[in-house]
Design a protein that fits this description.
42% of the residues lie in helices and 17% in strands. It has 10 helices and 10 strands. It has a 5-stranded parallel sheet with strand order 3-2-1-4-5, sandwiched between helices. A 5-stranded parallel sheet has the order 8-7-6-9-10, sandwiched between helices. Helix 3 packs parallel to helix 4 (99-108) and helix 5 (134-145) crosses helix 6 (160-174). The radius of gyration is 20 Å and the shape is globular. 36% of the residues are buried.
Length: 250
C-alpha cells in the first residue's frame, strides 16, 4: 500500500495588481508550481495602465514564469477556466483577489476546474498591553488595512491607555500613507476592544479566528500556547505581519 503524488498538467496563477504590486504573491504561487514540476504554468496580472509592475516581472523571472497575460478580474479567472483563442484552460487556478475574483473562482469549480481556496478579505488582530510599542501596533494595523477597503483590523487590549495611544498613532501615520484612501475605509469598520484580562482576550480571539494574529504582551506564552483558531501568529514587538507576507510566509 502506498501513495504517489503526480503533478497537474497545467495551472493558472492569478497575481493581484489592480491597486498595488504583489511580487510576494508571484513567489508564493510560482515556486511550489515549479517544485511540483507542473508542465504548463502561466500567470495573469491585471494592468490598469497597460504595464506590469517591474517587481512582479522580476519575481516571475526568478521563479521561471515565461508566459504572462495582462488580464485581471473575474474575466481572467473565466479565461483560465474556460480558455480563449489566446489562453489555454488549466486544471487548477491559484491566487488571491478581490470579491469578484473569489466568486469567479468558486464558479469555475462548476466547470471541472479546481481552485486553491476561496480567499476572503485580509484581516489582522493584534493583542497588546502596556508593554507594546503603540507606533508599531498602529503600523501593523495600517499595513493590513491598506490591503483593501473590505479588510478588517482589530486591536484587543487590557489597557485603555494603549488603545488611545494606538488610535492617535493611526491618525498620524494615515496622513503619510500612500494608500490612505483605501486604509481609511477599512479602518472605519475595524475595532479597538477593551477587555478585563488575558483570559477574556483569548476567548474573544479564538471566537474571531484571525487570519493574522500579532501578540505583544508581557505574557506572550499565554496567548501562543492558548490560541486555537488563527492563521499565522507573530510574536513580540519586533515581528511585524509584513515579515510573513514577504519572507517567512513565502
Amino acid at each position: 500500500l502506498g501513495s504517489r503524488w503526480s503533478p497537474l498538467d497545467s495551472v493558472g496563477l492569478y497575481v493581484p495588481g489592480g491597486t498595488a504590486a504583489y511580487p510576494s504573491s508571484v513567489l508564493m504561487l510560482a515556486i511550489p508550481a515549479a517544485v511540483a514540476k507542473i508542465k504548463e504554468i502561466y500567470m495573469c496580472v491585471p494592468c490598469p495602465n497597460g504595464l506590469i509592475n517591474s517587481t512582479v516581472l522580476a519575481a516571475a523571472k526568478i521563479a521561471g514564469i515565461t508566459k504572462i497575460y495582462k488580464v485581471g478580474g473575474a474575466q481572467a479567472i473565466a479565461a483560465m477556466a474556460l480558455g480563449t483563442t489566446l489562453i489555454s484552460p488549466v486544471n487548477k487556478i491559484f491566487g488571491p483577489g478581490n470579491q469578484f475574483v473569489t466568486v469567479a473562482k468558486q464558479l469555475a469549480t462548476k466547470f471541472n476546474v479546481a481552485i486553491d481556496m476561496p480567499a476572503g478579505p485580509s484581516e489582522l488582530l493584534v493583542v497588546a498591553d502596556d508593554t507594546a510599542n503603540a507606533a508599531f501596533v498602529a503600523s501593523d494595523l495600517l499595513s493590513q488595512a491598506e490591503h483593501g477597503k473590505d479588510s478588517q483590523v482589530i486591536l484587543v487590549s487590557t489597557s485603555m491607555d494603549l488603545i488611545k495611544d494606538v488610535e492617535a498613532e493611526i491618525s498620524n501615520q494615515l496622513k503619510e500613507l500612500p494608500r490612505k484612501d483605501i486604509a481609511e475605509v477599512a479602518i472605519k469598520h475595524s475595532k479597538s476592544i477593551l477587555v478585563k484580562d488575558n483570559v477574556e482576550a483569548l476567548d474573544l480571539i479564538n471566537t474571531y479566528g484571525p487570519e493574522h494574529f500579532i501578540v505583544c504582551t508581557k505574557d506572550n506564552d499565554f496567548f501562543v500556547n492558548g490560541i486555537q483558531n488563527a492563521g499565522s501568529v507573530f510574536i513580540g514587538n519586533y515581528t511585524p505581519e509584513s515579515a510573513g507576507d514577504y519572507a517567512s510566509g513565502t
